Amino acid sequence: MGRTGITLTRFIIETQAGYPAATGEFSALLAQIGLAGKLIAHDLRRAGLINILGTTGGTNVQGEAVKKLDEIANETFIKVFQYSGLVCALASEEMEKPVQFPENWPHGKYMLLFDPLDGSSNTDVNMPLGAIFSILRYEGKGGLPSAQELVRKGTEQIAAGYLMYGSSTMLVFTSGQGVHGFTLDPGIGEYLLSHENIRMPARGKVYAVNEGNYHKWPAGTRRYVDYLKESDKATGRPYSSRYSGCLAADVHRMLLGGGIYLYPGETDKPEGKLRLLYEANPLAMVVEQAGGGASTGTMRILEVEPKALHQRVPLLIGSAEDVSLAEAFIRGER
Ligand code: AFP
After folding, report:
1. N or C: which end of the chain has fewer CB within 10 A?
2. pTM, entire model
3. What is the DSSP string of 111-158?
4. CATH number of the domain that 48 lies in?
5. Same structural domain for residues 143 and 188?
6. Quick check: is 103 in a domain?
7. Residue 120, ligand 1, Cβ within 6 A
């Protein structure tokens, strides 16, 4: 049983020595992310009743149709952090440029990058959704960070995680001391420790990929997915296919049970679909901390040198052995 059931705040206080800011700021930051999660979960639970399904009619910086809930989730994160005294700049999938918070400066030394509503095609059909976040520390003394100062390599993240709105609401995070999962108890409005020190199996039996894109993939990726579907008892094949349309939910499944999620590059779109800074990097940090791997197919995600805020990257993420084997297929060794 261990510490199961303790609150998020108590967990952080108890383990504070190992956390980035023993001042309590980091714990306050996570509590604010948890608050954003509670507010968004509250809206999602009533979404069909309060006219917040469907699209706004606008498109975002990625050229994708914006859902009303994308906008609501993004505004929720902004409101929660604007006068928090914790964060000096925010960047999100829904905003072309980062937002600076002069009202939190010079006290707020954290920068937050996030996807406020991951899997938003699921909003209208009552399927799982998530939010993904990456936390950086800004050491600059000269003033608020410029847009380019948020564009950092994954290895520079000091913490990362995701919220998941499924049959329950969960907050899963790492600050480099293992991965811990908290489940929201709606009765008392608190996140309670439900999954301490999550470790991923070295290999899984499940793969997640949008197979409708099969004919757009390079040959190595196609060969790998064909391999997963062959029958072979010794290697546990065929793998089962599970794809939800929500990256956080699919990675959550792999984190707990093992397996591999892929959003590969395509022949005409080698950069793939997912965003490096606020989707791939934070989930890569989480998965690596749990003993798994995350790769572009040719290199470790966390070592990709980023050039732009909304940069895309191919992503293979999951159990360490599954990711290594997928890389071998992509390199043409299999
Ligand atoms: P949004 O973050 O824009 O909602 O996109 C969802 C997502 O980034 C990820 O959560 C899914 O795994 C993937 O895209 C789904 O994309 P396809 O519809 O192309 O399979």
Report:
1. N
2. 0.96
3. EEEEEEEETGGGGGGT--EEEEEEEEE---SSSSPPGGGG---GGG-S
4. 3.30.540.10
5. yes
6. yes
7. yes
With a 6 Å cutoff on the Cβ, whether 210 touches ligand 1 is yes
- Of 178, 170, 195, 144, nearest to 33 by C-alpha is 170
Closest C-alpha to ligand 1, atom 6: 119
C-beta 274 within 6 A of ligand 1: yes
Question: Would 2 be classed as within a structural domain?
Answer: no
On whether both 146 and 292 belong to a single domain, the answer is no
| 186 and 224 together in one domain | no
**Considering its fold, how many domains does the chain have in total?**
2
Model confidence pLDDT, tens digit, residues 130-164: 999 999 999 887 899 999 999 999 999 999 999 99
The residue type at 14: E
What residue's CA is closest to ligand 1, atom 12?
247
Say if ligand 1 is within 6 A of residue 76 CB. Answer: no
- Judge whether 237 and 228 are in contact, CB under 8 Å: yes
The Cβ of residue 88 has, within 10 Å, a number of other Cβ atoms equal to 26
